[in-house]
UniProtKB/TrEMBL annotation:
Highest taxon in the source lineage: Bacteria
Species: Corynebacterium epidermidicanis
A GO molecular-function descriptor: DNA binding
Swiss-Prot/TrEMBL keywords: Copper
Name assigned to this protein: Metal-sensitive transcriptional repressor
Gene Ontology BP terms: negative regulation of DNA-templated transcription
Similarity comment: Belongs to the CsoR family.
One Pfam assignment: Trns_repr_metal
Length: 94
């Protein structure tokens, strides 16, 4: 079975996602408790930034592992991985 590039950092990613999950619950609680709009927006921005960080880390792992492996193999597999990573970058940039 092929391993994904993030396997070595899996626990770190899971811990970061757990913290982000807590941030989201905190935002939910803030709205439920009628907190000030700007304070809620600040927390939303922090959660988005944290998710973006996870996404960029995964993208980096993907390029260093999966794309590098495909380049080493060459041919159509490399073309597919380059297209795949290009589309992932475009999604993250939105």
């Amino acid at each position: 079975m092929e391993q994904h590039g993030y396997v070595g950092d899996k626990e770190r990613y899971l811990a970061r996602l757990k913290r982000i999950e807590g941030q989201i619950r905190g935002i939910h609680r803030m709205i439920d408790e009628d907190q000030y709009c700007i304070d809620v927006l600040t927390q939303i921005s922090a959660a988005q930034s944290a998710l973006r960080g996870v996404g960029l880390g995964l993208l980096d792992d993907h390029m260093r592992h999966c794309v590098a492996h495909a380049v080493h193999q060459g041919g159509e597999e490399a073309d597919v991985k380059f297209k795949e990573v290009s589309e992932a970058v475009a999604r993250l940039a939105r």
